[in-house]
Specification:
484 residues; alpha+beta; OB fold (Dihydrolipoamide Acetyltransferase, E2P); BirA Bifunctional Protein, domain 2; eight-stranded mixed sheet; five-stranded mixed β-barrel; 20 strands; 26% strand
């Protein structure tokens, strides 16, 4: 019999004995009056009633020490002879284990070593744990196991609990920023007839009641929010989940959170100014600083944000003139630079070349001057119709946000959708569908509009972790699938 099996059997024995004694090991309620964090900040001698999970249990002579952890902090609890009722001490010693959740009543005091603690007068068993927690030093070292059993990762690692809190701060900071500037938060459909608003491979499913094939959205309601601009709303945003059936790496996930805003009577230059201000606020709220290190780059968001021209940057780092080069020349250059790329038209190859160049740029700044072929929803640049009025946030060699002056010419939009459909019919799974309903909406008239989107990738760069680790419960293969 292994050690874990012995522990489980012993706990099951205690569980049975507790029930025989008439003690409910899983009561429905406990009147918790203070969080652990509140207990730590109370005056000495204050009576408290709190609860948490036992993390440590040890005895020294007639004194028993333990630590309990709740969602706010960890505190030491002390069972002391002549101060704690003898029956309470015996109950704790005999029936309670590391991992159990308990309620504690007592007074705040300071130990001889100066540690703020609770001198226990009463203890209640709230949840009897059966499986033992991982060993602090040897358990959950495997990344796959940590992510699959994230609840244990949170219990054992304070930095992961902090990450969960920072993630909330990240999105609330962005939400607060936009609402204070008059943006209306909206909700748009997650299931769509046509996967629009971005160039990506969608997840397909079937709607039984309507008897139609549908898609999980690949953008945060881009085409829907633009319809709201047509309807007369001037500032909207949405924060939610979107889905792309593509590869996984440290930056990319298939199921993740995104924010998109749309701002009537503004263009991409207005968007750049607003986004720079928003990113500085979010970074300050999450990190407490505008300086941080991430993915091998040292970043200072307080520096002047530089504009990087798409055409000029590619030429600087590769020598390629994107408007004069052909597919063969581009493929040769990509192979020479050892850049992996997917077969496609010339402009997909150009974009692969840009992504190679992007890794060399720390930022902060904005990529501008993208070719119209790589951005089918952006307005053309009046000074150079080959390009669009688009901006991408560049930080630490990555794109951490994308926006543009939205295309509101329905004829131009229809022509671009038709070109996208030609690519889709030729086998490009990421090409956009021809959304006729959206074109029809544009024909009623959409005002000049700036749109922008940022995903949780920005958060992962702020905290310098892979994207998957920044999700509370990332999607994992079932254990049985990995064992086959």
């Amino acid at each position: 019999m292994g050690r874990e099996e012995q522990i489980v059997n012993e706990r099951l024995r205690k569980l049975k004995e507790l029930k025989e004694l008439g003690i409910n090991p899983y009561p429905a309620k406990f009147e918790k009056k203070q969080t652990v964090d509140e207990c730590l900040n109370l005056k000495l001698g204050t009576s408290v009633k709190t609860a948490g999970r036992i993390m440590i249990k040890r005895g020294i002579g007639k004194i028993v020490f333990s630590n309990i952890l709740d969602g706010t902090n960890k505190i030491q609890i002390v069972f002391q002879d002549k101060e704690t009722p003898e029956k309470t001490i015996e109950f704790f010693k005999k029936y309670l284990d590391v991992g159990d959740i308990i309620g504690v009543g007592g007074k705040i005091f300071k130990t001889k070593t100066g540690e703020i603690s609770i001198l226990v007068k009463k203890v209640d068993l709230l949840t009897k744990s059966i499986l033992p927690l991982p060993d602090k030093w040897h358990g959950l070292k495997d990344d796959e196991e940590r992510l699959r059993k994230r609840y244990l990762d949170v219990i054992m690692n304070p930095e992961i609990r902090e990450l969960v809190h920072k993630r909330e701060i990240f999105w609330n900071s962005m939400r607060d920023f936009l609402k204070k500037r008059g943006f209306l938060e909206v909700e748009t459909p997650v299931i769509e007839n046509s996967a629009g608003g971005a160039s990506a491979t969608p997840f397909k499913t079937y709607h039984n009641a309507l008897d139609i094939e549908v898609y999980l959205r690949i953008s945060m309601g881009e085409l829907w929010q633009k319809k709201l601009m047509v309807a007369g709303f001037e500032k909207t945003f949405e924060i939610g989940r979107q889905f792309r059936n593509e590869g996984m790496d440290i930056e990319h996930l298939q199921d993740y959170s995104q924010m998109e805003f749309y701002w009537s009577y503004a263009n991409y230059l207005d968007g750049m100014n607003l986004v720079e201000e928003m990113y500085k606020k979010v970074a300050k709220d999450v990190l407490g600083s505008l300086k941080f290190k991430t993915h091998g780059h040292s970043i200072d968001l307080n520096k002047k944000w530089v504009s990087y021209d798409y055409e000029a940057t590619i030429k600087k780092y590769t020598g390629i003139d994107i408007y004069k080069s052909d597919k063969k020349e581009l493929e040769l250059k990509l192979k020479e630079l050892s850049v992996e790329y997917s077969p496609g038209d010339k402009w997909k190859l150009v974009d692969s070349l840009w992504k190679y160049c992007r890794k060399k740029i720390s930022g902060p700044g904005f990529l501008v001057g993208q070719p119209v072929e790589v951005s089918p929803l952006a307005k053309r640049d009046v000074n150079d119709p080959r390009k669009v009025q688009q901006f991408q946030v560049i930080i630490a060699g990555s794109e951490l946000g994308n926006g543009y002056s939205e295309l509101n010419d329905p004829i131009d939009q229809e022509e671009r959708f038709e070109k996208q459909m030609e690519l889709k019919n030729a086998g490009d799974s990421e090409a956009q569908d021809h959304d006729k309903a959206f074109v029809e909406a544009l024909k009623y008239g959409m005002p000049p509009t700036c749109g922008f989107g940022v995903s949780e990738r920005f958060f992962s760069y702020l905290v310098n972790r892979p994207a998957r680790e920044c999700q509370i419960f990332p999607l994992m293969k079932p254990e049985s699938s990995e064992k086959k």
